[in-house]
Amino acid sequence: MHKRYASLWFRHLLTDRLAIRQPDLKNAPFVLAAPQHNRIVITAVNALALQQGITPGMAAADAKAVIPNLKVIDDVPGRSAMLLRSIGEWCIRYSPLIAVDEPDGLILDITGCTHLWGGEEAYLKEVIARLAAKGYTVRGAIADTIGAAWAIARFGKEQFIVEPGMHTDAMLKLSPAALRLDSIILDRLHKLGFYSIRRFMGLKRQALRRRFGDHFLLRIDQAMGTIDEPLLYLHPQEAYYEHLPSLEPVRTAGGIEVAIKTLLQNLCKRLKNEGKGLRTAVLKCYRIDGKVVGAEIGTNRPTYNTTHLFKLFELKIASIEPALGIELFTLTAPKVEDISIEQEAIWAPDGCGLNNSRLAELLDKLANKIGANNIHRYLPQESYWPERTTKKTLNLTENAVNGWSISRPRPSLLLKKPEPIAVTFKLPDNPPMLFVYKGEKHIVKKADDAERIEPEWWRTTRPHRDYYIVEDEQGRRYWLFRSGHFDAEGSRWYIHGFFA
């Protein structure tokens, strides 16, 4: 799937937060300031102060000279990171993968998310409108790369959604500052007349590296998508994760039940296909008011039984308080284990076994529907020769004289008659390096040691067989054998079975 990223820029992050908590600040110019090198320096400004020429980095005394009634509030170190993390937790309803982009932004991996809101344009409008309604001044952009999305959000003028594959063209007309470069590099670029990215993109990389350093080239490569940019997500994606946004806020227990069933069906379908069952499951419900509620369940054995798991969650639905409404449900399985398919109880020796009259009735119905010749029962038979280790029986009451041999693995499908194959091997007594069966070449990646099987001397004079279990490059396993010694006349290779 083609990767897409959204960048959110909170131009007045800290001052917006103060204005939300203290409404009387909304209509007054104010700044945040902190001591630096024996001076009180402005670290953040609100929109009104910015309009009157106050910028971060100015001395608070100089700013007061420009705006006598300017309010100066002490800044708290680390507040922006805490605030961005809090907003990121709220934004998880729009994407499960969110990273803090200090000092004033968030990065969202929105791959596969936007269709739930009707496309990228509607998605971006929804996110920005919801954050603006909370009181934040925010701009956003969507592009194929993190660097391009970051640049368009801060330096774009009209189009804030860059179509897939068009991020390079969108970047070329921007200022070098859009590459997230430090001030020293930007000053050098401006002195050389590079006022847009287009002007130096055609230059040789060696010349750019020599003059501006490796970090300069790294930022270009990240923005253009030639190098992936790692992100530290607030919540790393669980291997088994499902999410379900709500078109309308869910306020009832019935709606919560429907959401849980849908999530369980999707998750358990995947678990079943991969032969796994969950041991723990965590449900999170993201409410409109920003709070997260939920429930957690655990099982004694791994399972993907949707009905059973829903009954466990059903006991906890009453404790989930929807308040004004839930707009996103997520379900994760942090602990899963391999699950083995149990043998059906109908084949058990006690009570529900072959003597069960219901089994006989079922077989009678099947025989009359598809024909008795299409139903077979096999019993083990004493013989070394693979073709003679089983025998057919016509009734359900006949018992086996001896048990099934389990000393060595045997294929789940044994051909009625071995079929010849062409092989290539390194040494005479080694397993094949590759073999050709029905025109398809199989390269052998793994092989077990040979198992020699000889026929009963009183039945036949056929040569012995050296069997190998081999696995090809696609993980498929086969039962191959060489008939007789490698240098004997008539020695050939055959395929005799397939493993599950």
Automatic annotation (TrEMBL):
<dbReference type="InterPro" id="IPR043502">
    <property type="entry name" value="DNA/RNA_pol_sf"/>
</dbReference>
<feature type="domain" description="UmuC">
    <location>
        <begin position="1"/>
        <end position="73"/>
    </location>
</feature>
<keyword id="KW-0227">DNA damage</keyword>
<dbReference type="InterPro" id="IPR050356">
    <property type="entry name" value="SulA_CellDiv_inhibitor"/>
</dbReference>
<dbReference type="InterPro" id="IPR043128">
    <property type="entry name" value="Rev_trsase/Diguanyl_cyclase"/>
</dbReference>
<dbReference type="Pfam" id="PF00817">
    <property type="entry name" value="IMS"/>
</dbReference>
<dbReference type="InterPro" id="IPR001126">
    <property type="entry name" value="UmuC"/>
</dbReference>
<dbReference type="GO" id="GO:0006281">
    <property type="term" value="P:DNA repair"/>
</dbReference>
<protein>
    <submittedName>
        <fullName>DNA polymerase Y family protein</fullName>
    </submittedName>
</protein>
<comment type="similarity">
    <text>Belongs to the DNA polymerase type-Y family.</text>
</comment>
